Amino acid sequence: MAAPSEDTLRRALAERQAAADAQAEAVRALKAAGGASKADVDAAVEALKALKVEAGAAARRLQQALGAGAGGAAREELRQAVVNTLERKLFYIPSFKIYRGVAGLYDYGPPGCRVKANVLSFWRQHFVLEENMLEVDCPCVTPEVVLKASGHVEKFTDLMVKDEKTGTCYRADHLLKDFCKEKLEKDLALPQEKADEFKRVLAILDDLSAEELGAKIKEYSIVAPDTKNPLSDPYPFNLMFQTSIGPTGLSVGYMRPETAQGIFVNFKDLYYYNGQKLPFAAAQIGQAFRNEISPRQGLLRVREFTLAEIEHFVDPEDKSHPKFVDVADLEFLMFPRELQLSGESAKLMKLGEAVSKGTVNNETLGYFIGRVYLFLTCLGIDKGRLRFRQHLPNEMAHYAADCWDAEIESSYGWIECVGIADRSAYDLKAHTEKSGVPLVAHEKFSKPRKVEKLVIVPSKKDLGLAFKGNQKMVLEALEAMSEKEAFEMKAELETKGETNFKVCTLGKDVVITKKMVSISMEKKLEHQRVFTPSVIEPSFGIGRIIYCLFEHSFYTRPSKSEEEQLNVFRFPPLVAPIKCTVFPLVKNQEFDAAAKVIAKALTTAGISHIIDTTAISIGRRYARTDEIGVPFAVTVDSATNVTIRERDSKEQIRVDINEVASVVKQLTEGQSTWADVSAKYPAHVGPQGDQE
Ligand code: AMP
């Protein structure tokens, strides 16, 4: 039977509580009236007690459901266990720890570095190699002009509120989110309408403007969490780290907030390198920097992180993808904007249908969504805790055609780990305009085509005389007219000599006269079509993916004696920091020599491994490597014939010493599964396994 929903439990609690309150009132009335017999009063009190017990049980059921859901104590506990193991085993280290660290900055330690290298190497194989992408590596320090053109200097902001007395800064949307979540999780007496309202606010949080956020903060009387002081209105804070390039301090630069701009500014050269053919993709892996307002989600929200980005350039008139068929049958959780706005949950959908119904804007975008799904699940992300969420209208940049985030559920809730956006032609157009270098593609016609072209020629002199400082805005608005608008204007100018014209950037109408602009259609022979390509951008936050992978891979199991819980990371071999450990069972020359032979063969086969000769029990040594997720352990208990143990099943097989490296290689590279090798080699059920 399906568990009752949170709404049902909330309603049940409200009913039980109301019944108990009514009975309490009845008992009070009975006592106040004075005439009732002791037996009647006792019976009414007993009934009240029973109703209170029922209300208490309903409250516990709701509490349990909330605890098992978002933000529950179980999640907190899991996070603590994972984070403790990660820090103890040096997967990562808070940066500058001996100086008490800096919020939002972390180092990867030895096993963490290996996991990261494995994830990046698989990323290169799965995307760069598969699609023949052109990889580049651009500097982090970026001159201001580039980020002005891209819009980051003006708009790369988050909304911030300040504690009005202490000046401490908070992200406005995070405070509202925390408030609504806390109410939903902790306030058991919350009326159903209020619960619905808070859920709706959470669903549209990313869609709220500064004014709307400010209004909600006021409406709910949200105050500074640390001091309970009042908060300022939300205002934008630019997240880029500013610096200066060179000693004069005159040349402003920024640490790049994304790697994408390095690719856009190189478009012209990359297009030629690719033989002037579209579509093609460029890729870059590198550090990105964002001065987050109050980073507090551990490794998930940091101030410097590794991004892996793809810019796939495509003809805006043809966004089909020849390999879409390869992913069309994939089925996974999708969360289109209609479901979000109506308060529903993500649904399993076939990717092919999502594209054919227009839920996903085009095949190329759909292709990358499918490839991202395969990438994440191959790494070991749990399919049930991965969804693709479409951006809400306001959340999406105005120029974007469609945008989906791969979100992974962790103990912090659903986290955006990969953004997949159809950014249309925005970036290339912006850099073309700012740099004066046309970042365009050409389609050569086999035969020249006769075309009629709209030609709008504004007269700068007359516009200047009429509009002075506003001349540029009027001129741009005239040039941007559609064919229909231009011909309506031409007709009016010819009949009346002047016309009213709305200039959006000025926010008003101006009067245009005949001499200010000439509008005509010209016949031309065209040999090629020149256009600005659209770009589809999958952007991967590598640190976020890795952290979610840590949580999804972590589990505990009792030791043999059942006295303690042992930690295990069930990393697939692809991700595991070390693929294999070699344990001489006891210290003697013969076993040490055999271990060395095996280690040498593993090195030759390119399998990362360590020999552990510590004088502790084999069970302890297994537990130690399970804790860093090593998938296979070779135990040398004979000079000729050894065992290989699989981490999760703890099963062992017996293999000739000369075959060990090739068996482990097949297992780690995916040519054989554990079931395959178990069928081929004899199982080992000996004393050494019993010591775990
Ligand atoms: P965006 O350009 O904001 O869509 O970010 C691209 C990706 O970078 C996101 O999908 C995240 O995975 C990652 N990301 C963004 N901000 C941070 C951060 N502060 N810390 C870690 N990863 C981040």
How would you concisely characterize the structure shown here?
With 692 residues, the chain is of the alpha+beta class.
Describe the protein's architecture and organization:
The structure is a single chain. The protein has 692 residues and is an alpha+beta fold. Helix content is 41%, strand content 25%. The chain has 24 helices and 28 strands. The strands form eight sheets. Strands 3-10-11-21-16-15-14-12-13 form a nine-stranded mixed beta sheet, with helices on both faces. Strands 25-24-26-27-28 form a five-stranded mixed beta sheet, sandwiched between helices. Strands 4-9-8 form a three-stranded antiparallel beta sheet. Strand 22 and strand 23 form a beta hairpin. It is globular, with a radius of gyration of 32 Å. Bound molecules: adenosine monophosphate. The site of adenosine monophosphate (AMP) has 15 residues, from strand 11, strand 16, strand 21 and helix 19. It is found in: Cytoplasm. It is an enzyme of class 6 (ligase).
Task: Give the tags.
alpha+beta, 24 helices, 692 residues, binds adenosine monophosphate
User: Which overall shape is indicated by the principal axes computed on the Cα atoms?
Assistant: globular
Which CATH-level-2 architecture of the largest domain? Answer: 2-Layer Sandwich
Query: The CATH topology of the largest domain, please?
Result: BirA Bifunctional Protein, domain 2
Give the total of domains: 5
Which spans of ≥5 residues are poorly predicted at pLDDT below 50?
none
Helix content: 40-55%
